[in-house]
């Protein structure tokens, strides 16, 4: 039996486009964390899609375009608190919840995010 990555099991690029579109709609409207996202929404969504592709076991698209993710270093210029991480996770949870996949797969997908979100906290 062939082992499929989480990226493949959730639906690949199509699922990540749905996820990033919904996630950033929520983030850009969120009163606490919208301040962290000041550049072009489409550019931010594309970088996130590339990163998530790689993060979830798909092709190494982010590294091919932007180099090693170094996510903590890339986020250091922004003040990120624990409250910001919680808000980010709430937005991600809502976006994951809207994906047309089984609950168990939604849970597995969301479980990939808390550790990374709290790793970005720098204040």
Describe the protein's topology.
Blueprint (H helix, E strand, L loop, with lengths): L5 H5 L1 H18 L11 H15 L5 H6 L4 H5 L6 H16 L5 H8 L3 H6 L4
Can you offer a commentary on this structure?
The chain is mainly α and 123 residues long. It has one domain (6-119): Globins (Globin-like, Orthogonal Bundle), CATH 1.10.490. It has 8 helices and no strands. The chain has helices at residues 6-10, 12-29, 41-55, 61-66, 71-75, 82-97, 103-110, 114-119. The N and C termini lie far apart (46 Å). The relative contact order is 0.17. The mean pLDDT is 92.
Give the CATH superfamily.
Globins
Q: If you consult CATH, what is the topology?
A: Globin-like
Which sequence of SSEs, written as H and E, runs from N to C? Answer: HHHHHHHH
Shape, per Cα inertia axes: globular
Provide the residue-averaged pLDDT: 92
What is the gyration radius calculated from CA atoms?
A: 14 Å
**CATH class value:** Mainly Alpha
Oligomer: single chain
| β-strand number | 0
Question: Given the helix and strand composition, which structural class is it?
Answer: mainly alpha
Give helix % range: 55-70%
Helix tally?
Answer: 8
Low-confidence stretches: none
CATH architecture assignment name: Orthogonal Bundle
Strand content: under 5%
Number of domains: 1
Distance between the termini: 46 Å
Question: Main β-sheet: number of strands, strand sense, barrel status?
Answer: none
GO molecular function: heme binding; metal ion binding; oxygen binding; oxygen carrier activity
Protein name: Globin
Family: Belongs to the truncated hemoglobin family. Group II subfamily.
Organism: Dyadobacter luteus
């Amino acid at each position: 039996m062939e082992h499929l990555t989480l990226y493949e099991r959730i639906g690949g690029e199509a699922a990540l486009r749905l996820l990033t579109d919904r996630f950033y709609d929520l983030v850009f409207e969120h009163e606490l964390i919208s301040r962290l996202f000041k550049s072009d929404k489409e550019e931010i969504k594309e970088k996130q899609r590339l990163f998530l592709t790689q993060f979830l076991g798909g092709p190494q698209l982010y590294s091919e375009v932007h180099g090693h993710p170094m996510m903590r270093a890339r986020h250091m210029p922004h003040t990120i608190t624990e409250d910001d991480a919680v808000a980010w996770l709430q937005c991600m949870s809502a976006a994951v919840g809207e994906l047309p996949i089984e609950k168990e797969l939604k849970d597995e997908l969301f479980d990939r995010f808390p550790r990374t979100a709290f790793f970005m906290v720098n204040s």
